[in-house]
Amino acid sequence: MPQTVSISFFRFDGFLDRYWAMTMMAWARRPLSRVPGIGFWKLCGSGKGEGFNPTIWPETFAILATWPDAETAQAQTSGAAIFTKYRTKAAESWTVFLTPTTTRGNWSGQEPFEAQPEVEGPLAALTRATIKPGILSRFWGQVPGISAVIGADANVAFKIGIGEVPMLQQVTFSVWPSKAAMDGFARTGAHAKAIRAVRDEGWFKEELYARFVVQSDSGTWGGTSPLTRLETA
């Protein structure tokens, strides 16, 4: 059975619920590690605005996890106690299920994703990097241009920036209708310029890039499933 990756996003309203979510960045680790079938997993917070921002903003949190198959992923993200607790506290939540098709690099010294043959259909892209402290100002100077371009791209159905450690360990995640649409963005403009700088100047201590086929989702984000936007892209 092919590996399934889930990414669950949770939006919290009000001080008490946001404070709870902040504390769970530490306290959720043990219960997550004990969920039957879970493999690699990460807890992430987000930044202000659209998420990819050096200013911590305790509204959106995410849980990424790998599972041996789609059935286990769907059963545990909907039924395991720790995921249920997050959904109960959150004002809104959305989980997307993915099949890895391309993976390069490491995340915390591991290769978490098991690539499968790529098929036609909607795709998702994930990048994760540990940024060298000496280039933080240059890195964050590039981010507004990239965010503006991707935000204006009519093809992108969903995008968010999250992270494990503020400013230093960052994750970007986006959903696209096709490989052509994704590649068209990646090879032009501010994003292409930033990628060249990463390669030429060695911005990252560790990095990972992964591409996925979108399987399905559950829940809503902004009142609807982001995958419905793929139908009109």
The domain tally reads 1
Q: What order do the strands of the largest sheet run in, or round the barrel if closed?
A: 1-3-2-6-7-5-8-4
Decide which structural class fits the backbone.
alpha+beta
Name of the CATH class: Alpha Beta
Looking at the chains present, what oligomeric state does this protein adopt?
Answer: single chain
Q: What percentage of the residues does DSSP assign to strands (E)?
A: 25-35%
- Helicity, as a percent range: 25-40%
> Total helix count?
7
Counting DSSP E segments of at least 2 residues, the number of strands comes to: 8
Structure notes:
The chain is α+β, with helices and mostly antiparallel strands and 233 residues long. The chain has a single domain, classed as Alpha-Beta Plaits, CATH 3.30.70. The chain has 7 helices and 8 strands. The protein has an 8-stranded antiparallel β-barrel with strand order 1-3-2-6-7-5-8-4, surrounded by 4 helices. Helix 5 runs antiparallel to helix 7.
Key phrases:
8 strands; 233 residues; globular; 8-stranded antiparallel beta barrel; single chain; Alpha-Beta Plaits; 7 helices
Give a short summary of the structure.
This protein has helices at residues 15-27, 29-33, 70-79, 81-89, 136-152, 179-186, 189-201, and strands at 4-11, 41-46, 60-67, 92-105, 123-131, 158-165, 169-176, 204-219. It is α+β, with helices and mostly antiparallel strands and 233 residues long.
